[in-house]
Amino acid sequence: MKNILFIPICLLISVGFSLPVHAQAIADSPLIWERQKASLGSVMEEYGKVTTEFFVVNDGTSPVVIEEVETDCGCTTVDFITDTLLHDQIGAVKVDYQPTGFGGTFEKKVVVKTNIKPAGDTLYLEGFNIPYPENVASYYDYKVGNLGFRFSSINMGEVFTNAPKVKYVDFYNFKDLPITLDDAHSGLPPHVKINMIPAIVPAKSRGLLAIQYDGAEKDDLGFFDEEVTFQIESSGNEGVALRLLTTVQEYFAPVPKSEVNQVPRLGVSEVDVDLGKISSKELVQREITLSNMSPEPVNIRKVVTNCDCMQFDLPTYDLEPGEKTTLKLSFDPSGRLGIDHKMVSIFSNDPLNPTRTIVVKSRID
């Protein structure tokens, strides 16, 4: 039997759940949804359906009748009955998603129709389908011990300092025994956490690693190529090493248009540097002017190059309004021939352009 849950708002708050009254409000509707989009992450068809719930509160004075809930796919089912939400009552719409054999990103719609808004409020499910491969051995051909992965490294992409990023990585347990994480001896750095889904992966079965990377805990900016090791338990403890590729960026809140001229702004005199034709036997130098183009202090957080052959010298990392400094670059082309590109990245507290990249091009004889 389909049912919808109605809970007095005071009871829900007493167990630690509350709805932000300011968020996700729909125009001309008293219904306020806790969220309108649910991310299911990566899902695998052999583990069956994935369930999530959408909570809603009636913030109006009149009763709201939920008359119908529609989905746009047979893979999505909804658990509900037509009923009434009185003032300050909370309802829960339970949605089940059945993973399909089609791989890739998915987005499904759930439309909740009411007497107040017959066209309905639209809710979304999103995630990534991982179908079961025809040939497990060739699909998970990168082995770390008895675990098979698709790739030799895991690209975490950009991670911002305001919130950790989670990436789901599928693997295959080639062992003849089930495995689980040894949390007591994880060996992971503080900025990386790993969970296994399911908690116990049976022998000759697939599982997921939920890898969480915390940019704030990393406490550094730029590109990082790291090897992290975690422990699994089976017949004994075993270390599993993973290579993570991550770019950590500092997060800045969006700047209102009216405040664009009031925030720190870093000026870079040249971002496309062409050294022209140079000899591999001579050190080449170039100077770049950095300036504070705002009424606020500019702080240069970090300067990095993508090659030891490119060195830099920066006399100060703090610029007062109107102040300038010189970034001196030294490129050693020894051992190199042909067209060459090097990059210098400057991280600062400029919220409009927190990362500035200088590209240095040359033709080496």
Structural descriptors:
365 residues; Immunoglobulin-like; five-stranded mixed β-sheet; 3 helices
Written account of the structure:
By secondary structure, this protein is mostly beta strands. It folds into 3 domains: 5-130, Immunoglobulins (Immunoglobulin-like, Sandwich); 136-249, Immunoglobulin-like (Sandwich); 260-364, Immunoglobulins (Immunoglobulin-like, Sandwich). The chain has helices at residues 9-14, 136-139, 215-218; strands at residues 5-8, 31-33, 37-44, 50-58, 64-71, 76-79, 83-85, 89-97, 104-114, 121-130, 142-144, 147-149, 154-160, 165-173, 179-181, 192-197, 200-201, 205-213, 222-233, 237-249, 266-268, 272-278, 284-292, 298-305, 310-313, 318-319, 324-331, 338-348, 355-364. The strands form 6 sheets. Strands 1, 2, 4, 6 and 8 form a 5-stranded antiparallel beta sheet that branches. Strands 3-10-9-5-7 form a 5-stranded mixed beta sheet, with no helix packed on it. Strands 11-12-14-18-16 form a 5-stranded antiparallel beta sheet. The protein starts with a strand and ends with a strand. Residues 1-23 form the signal peptide. Keywords: Signal. Pfam families: DUF1573. InterPro entries: DUF1573 (IPR011467), Ig-like_fold (IPR013783).
